[in-house]
Amino acid sequence: MPESANSQSRDFTHDELDFGVTTALPTVQKVSMRPSHEEDQRQAEQDSKEGVTHLDIVRVIERLHRRSLDLVRTDLIKAGITDLSPSQVMMLFTIGTADLSVRELIERGYYLGSNASYILKRLVEGEYIVRTTSERDRRSARVRLSEKGIALCETIRRIDRMYHRLVSRSEDEVRDLEITYQTLMRLEKAWSNAVRYGGVLIDE
Length: 204
Fold this sequence. Notes:
three-stranded antiparallel sheet, mainly alpha, single chain, 6% strand, 7 helices
């Protein structure tokens, strides 16, 4: 008998893949209903009037993440890719040119073990990645992109260059993007350290 959904909650922090996951792959559909561009603009204007806080930045990042997945979903539909979700495509980019153990992949992408296992299972079935067994530890799995996975990433990169041109139309905008990238990297480092070392002290 197939295992129940609850049985999938085992610990995947070890270098292994559980290919017994039976959850069905959601079909690619039209872009789901999200807050409109006008609503996002109104929210941003309201935030600017009150002054930017750390929480405001977190909320913008969260909205950007949702919107970025919408873009990838749209690109997949245009490319006729119906067997992958945006999150699964993003894992291909997380793997990149590397040959990673599952532990390394989870740490690199901040995935939950069970989520990584499910996504990797779908990518293997779709022949977008190649799964091999570590020579040092037969229980340990390693993953890398297949030729099909590399080709898909190149397709997404070509489309992404068009999006990049929309927000880098001048030297000032290019410089702003570079500053934004460095700022986000600084935030990621600060947040990672806060998680690793137990957050920050809160004044009474």
